[in-house]
Amino acid sequence: RIVGGDPASPNEFPWQAFLNVGMTSGATYYCGGTLIADRWILTSANCLVVSGQTLKSVNVYLGAHDITATSEVNRRVYSGSQVFLHPDYNANNQAGDIAMIQLTTSVTYTQYIRPVCLATSTEPDYASSPVTVTGWGTTYDGASSLNSLLRKVSVPVITNAECSSTYGSNVVTDKIICTSGANSRGICTGDGGGPMNFKQSDGTWKQIGIVSFVSASGCQRGYPSGYTRLSSYATWVQSVMSSN
């Protein structure tokens, strides 16, 4: 999913979800997501909204590592019962690119499947901080299939000013956080909806972003990548969970 990264250790990121998104047409799409509570998955809206398609089902793999394996000892599969898209979602400029999936049954936490700590509504801007992004997306431009093993890559957060010099301020608002695309490192097709993970000083991880967009010219061209800045939506996430 990742260009320039390394394989993660099995279940190194026990909140990482793999989403199998089915449409009524029979088309299937794949995305990342995160477990944030025992019945809730966080992902991007663009994983669930495809132009000209109607969403039929979402199957959520937790505890997975090799998604090409028929089964894995720590993997569990859950079904989504409802999806909640942010009301501001705009596919044209990726504003409000955040969604939540409520599961039909509660997840049993294990050392291999557990929720991530979420950014609060008051966070620093993280510019120049190293973050780790994870996913099963393609590992090079033009790849025809996802990567079988979960991969990770460490990339630096860049300022929004630097990011908007590539994408413009219509796209890069204060609700977006970007990472450098230097050295052909970063996210690629199939990583959407997955987490931007920040390692805190006590060694625990916090999710501060959701993979949203890469440059239309490719993942390995050195352009920045864009993520939904979770601190801007922390209040919405909590309100959806508390009212459902």
From TrEMBL:
It catalyses: Selective cleavage of 103-Arg-|-Ser-104 and 124-Ile-|-Ile-125 bonds in Limulus clotting factor B to form activated factor B. Cleavage of -Pro-Arg-|-Xaa- bonds in synthetic substrates. Its EC number is 3.4.21.84. Keywords: Disulfide bond, Hemolymph clotting, Hydrolase, Protease, Serine protease, Signal, Sushi. It comes from the Eukaryota. The keyword Cytoplasm does not apply. GO terms for cellular component: extracellular space. One of its GO terms (biological process) is innate immune response. One of its GO terms (molecular function) is serine-type endopeptidase activity. SMART domains: Tryp_SPc. PROSITE patterns: TRYPSIN_DOM. Pfam families: Trypsin. Residues 2-242 form the Peptidase S1 domain. It is an enzyme of class 3 (hydrolase). This is limulus clotting factor C.
